[in-house]
Every structure is written in structure tokens, then in C-alpha cells.
Known about the structure:
Layout: H1 3-10, H2 14-36, E1 45-49, H3 53-65, E2 70-74, E3 86-89, E4 101-105, H4 132-141, E5 146-150, E6 153-154, H5 155-158, H6 169-175, E7 181-185, E8 188-189, H7 199-213, H8 224-235, E9 241-245, H9 247-256
Parallel strand pairs: 1-2, 1-4, 2-3, 4-5, 5-7, 6-8, 7-9
Amino acid sequence: MSRNLLDTVLGGGAIEQAASIAHQRRQEALAREAEASVLDLSQRHAVIAGVKGRLGETLLNHLLASDYAGVTALADRPIQLGLRKLRCCPAAGLADQPCDDAYLCLNDQDGPFARSWYGRDAHFLEVLQEHLLPLAEHLYRYGVRRLSVLAPLSSWQSMGKVHHGMADETEAALSLLGFDTVQFLRPAVQLTPAPGGSLLQRFAHGYLSLFNMMLPKGAETLRADHLAQATLEAARDPRPGVRVIDNEALLALRARARPAS
């Protein structure tokens, strides 16, 4: 049927109106589909290890403000902090409660997220590279089936191809443990050493500061709170499998992240 005939039968502008209605209904259907594909966290319990420095503390705060029914932070001994959803205990204490999702924050004492005021993170479990595999095996035995590993990269590394696949044998082994979902998050961070020190350290500080000024948009760094938002947004993806989420994808996740409840 020609456009002129349709206009005659349906009235002027009817085609545009019908197309607009169809487009609106399609958008509503897509929105419902997207909402249905978001993992419901309200009946799930999260475990976090590596609550050291700004990144670990900030992610813990975001987990507590999220829909998770409960959050356990791994520590060297039981700690009572008086927060309703939070339990702090050694890894062996996981036998006493359900565990669904785990977040492992790799700690770097010299990294940009390392600082913690007044040593308030002293009793939380530190996670180094060599701890990842045995800790993940332990978490799997206690029921964790979704694992997120935060492994920050320097800005120059985030510009290369290393962040698109498994970084090493440890990550490859993690992906084979049997988790339903494994996510490796690779945010870009500015590894600028503190001023002062030896002549070589001062030279490195100046060089890295200059280098950071020349980074392209794709290597834009995320603040700890923005990274925590992106991490939770990634965790709501219910699809199983192994995913490597690079810095550019984290920036996009943060842009669409829902505010904490």
C-alpha cells in the first residue's frame, strides 16, 4: 500500500504517529527485557576479601549500601563493627553462613588505593597475587559460585592488549575451578610514586607525571567510588561464563550504574 493511500485511509500524520507508538513500545519492551536480565541481589550474600586501602573500603561500603542480604568481610579474627548487614570473620568462619558472590581486591601497598587512615584496615585479610588461587578454591568449597577479581593495571598497561584475556596462569586456573561466573576487572590506575626519595625516584616521579598527562580517553582512570559502582553493575549481569572487563568497559558500566539504595 502506498504512503499516499495510507495517509488517505488513516488520516494525515497517522504513519508517523503509528511509527512513534511502535518505537515507544519497542523501547518499553527492551527496558523490561533489560530489567528481567538483571540479577536480583536481595536474596544473595556477598563475601569480600582485600578490604585494604581506599578501593577495598569503598567497595565494602557500596556492598553494604546495595541490595545484598548480607556481606562478609574476611579478616584475621572476628570483628564486631555494629553494622546490621556486615559480618567480619576469618575464612574458616564461612562455614556458618550462606555464600553466593565473592569479590577479591588485589592489594598493592605502593598503589594509588593503598592508603587507609589510622590503620583501620589492619585486621582485614590482605590479598596478594599468590593468594588468589588458594583463596578462590576455599571460597568455592563454601558455596561461592560467582567470583569478581579486581586487578588494577597501570595506565600504560591498560592501553595494550594484556587486559583483553587471561593475564597469567593463575587467572587461567581460576577460570577452571567451576564457578558459574568469573569476572576479571582491570581498571586503569595512575601509578605515580610519591615525591622525594633518591634521584632515580624523583626522575621516575617526573616521568610518570608527564606520561599520565598524555593518556588518551580510553585510559581515563576511575576514582575508587566510581570503580565500586562499576563493579556492582557488572555483578548484576546474570550471564554465566568468564569475562575480562577492561577499563573502557568499566567506564561504560559506571556511566549506567544505578545509585545505591
